[in-house]
């Protein structure tokens, strides 16, 4: 096969998928410029009404399968107060993974029956969880013992627990599931249940669960089957658990066009194999490498084009058959066994919920002739690259318009403002409608899930992004500082 | 023909001409190399046997396990070969998407390990992709493996330079065909055959077929995935073209229904891709010969039929449910109108408890045996919905004098069956409103025997 080598790289766009609310905000370029002028670059914008909409979609997937239960927002995806407060005004619940997140959730209006404490916990986190009566997702046998001791010693009320299991065996096939630091092996369930019974006055078992770091539906289906078997083992001992917690990992569809993703990844493969000019900074391969003409390694990128993501992914998972139960759908099994479903979407629940804005400081050419655009932000202010999400930013001209029209797209590399070689916002060439001019804005869309404030730092005394909440009312956009937002906030201060 | 071992029956497969009335090419004779007639059912029998046999004696001496990364036919052949030699076989795969093949492998005694899906929370610093771990495991001390390594093993290609390729030349009276078309999986058969054919005639044109990027055809890689194959060399192919799964099934149907060749979707893809590629050439030949007094010599083309149709019924059903249309069924809940369902007898938990005491209705729990065994209404019997559906198709499963209370999780399914039984003439059948969940929530007793 003859490989055609183009002289200049054709624009390999990866346009973000924008739903109406976020698209409308990006059309309000004048407002966004005013905000950054006043509050500085970078600036985070969150859309609280969108998280309510997303929670409703998850709830609808439950409804399709007639399942009861709770949708817990994995708070760690975003630190915003506005998002959490807005969610408190819906029927959703929240999953907190630290003392600070628990305090934040309580302060935002979540009552303890709508809070679950997960992840590694320090003594203060455990105490506040037990004291307020939230449900505790127990990671290990040791943690169960510590909880029981805490409740006994401090004379706290009986605490509701969910046991997090891992390493499920399936029928027929061994799954080489990625080993996890979290959860108790399903094989040790009996050991755990004996402890639950021994501490019956201190802990109440409400269910078991898993949280798998995988995009594979089959792996999750196997774990869900394992949980149903585990719950039956609980029932046969006289315990009365009623919930299965299937964790998160429902994913987000980041890109508008599947063809762009396919074209891009094919071009990346060709570039790594040297069959076309490089499209990444110094030939970076995103995990792929060329081993004497054969492609080796694995693509370390988030599958940014995922038509089945979020609530639809949940729906597909629940529709899968359970081989060890005669092929009955998982949803049917949950329903007929009278189990409630707990989910903990993070990224999926803040899909389309936010935007990181950054000011263009300069555009210049490198020695090798590439365009390098420097932004008033650090790479860690929009962790897209860190999370392997490849998605183009939206360029907003000084007059607020998005596309100048007519001009040829320009391939640029985006650099941050740290005095550090590695401070690149993208290691790939990004194609923009025109060469950005100082003062213009780049909007990194759909970054509310892990790509906004998760790993931002105060390195070099550079500013940490301020955060504002924006919402639409009476046909126009309104905003306030994130910490000043409440679900009853109205322009002009009246409620 | 008499053999001492089934492995001697590998190879020497027929080359069958496809009826021109089927493919419609006027100047090209089209031949199918029927690899599906190998004893274990596929072209992979050749490679599996050629790769394994060199190491078999040693493996038997050490009690080694045969291991391969395979999702299908190579695993199947290796499972048989390993079993014949008293060895165990393990297949490691992330591409086992055909449940029938998975079940067949288990039946043959193979052990299957599936690689995990992609990580949801990417950790760019973690370079331990599952395949690297697999290779590390193979080289750990204390283990003994015979790793056939089909994507990189030259003995895979060799099976075809010594077998498949020469057989084609022999059956074409010592000539190479003008075109050779093959689907690219491990690239072993296409590379091996192409090498032999080009030695005979450097002008032979080789077409490699791959699947569309977001598509899936068993045994064929996509245009990006072929680059992960060690045996793949781009210069083997004059051109690479892609085939969709719909086209593969279309080709499969033509081969099965019109040619009597019961090929799987890979063979279907090869046929479809071949005819599509050759049609343009055929038109060109027509145009160039129309004016000439005599027709030029006929051209020939060969494609490979990899395996058999039987394992791909589920695959086909998923993509072409229309091919499996079933006759309408009697007494089916699907025929009920919403008005009929709304009019079905229903009773809430409180009244149902009283009714059970007074009239002793038959309580039928439609949930699965597992759910029923866990918790149920005392005195109820369990007929799982799918069984109940079969039962009522034949008529009322209980007498009209016997009142019946139907129970399901939330009262939807039971309402449908109550409506159906009413339509079938039962005078007193009721559905438990809100189902067993409402029963539980009302605090009514559930037992576990």
TrEMBL record, chain A:
Keyword Lipid metabolism: no
Pfam (any one): Orn_Arg_deC_N
Residue ranges constituting the Orn/DAP/Arg decarboxylase 2 N-terminal domain according to the UniProt record: 50-272
Origin superkingdom: Bacteria
Cofactor(s) required for function per UniProt: pyridoxal 5'-phosphate
Keywords: Pyridoxal phosphate
PANTHER family assigned to the protein according to its UniProt record, in alphabetical order: DIAMINOPIMELATE DECARBOXYLASE, GROUP IV DECARBOXYLASE
Protein name (Swiss-Prot/TrEMBL): Diaminopimelate decarboxylase
Source organism (scientific name): Streptomyces albospinus
Lineage: Bacteria, Bacillati, Actinomycetota, Actinomycetes, Kitasatosporales
UniProtKB/TrEMBL annotation, chain B:
Coiled coil among keywords: no
Cofactor(s) of this protein: pyridoxal 5'-phosphate
SMART domains membership: RHOD
Positions of the Rhodanese domain: 357-448
Keywords, ordered alphabetically: Pyridoxal phosphate
Record-linked Pfam families: PALP, Rhodanese
SUPFAM superfamilies: Rhodanese/Cell cycle control phosphatase, Tryptophan synthase beta subunit-like PLP-dependent enzymes
PANTHER family for this protein: CYSTATHIONINE BETA-SYNTHASE (PTHR10314)
Protein name: Rhodanese domain-containing protein
UniProt source species: Streptomyces albospinus
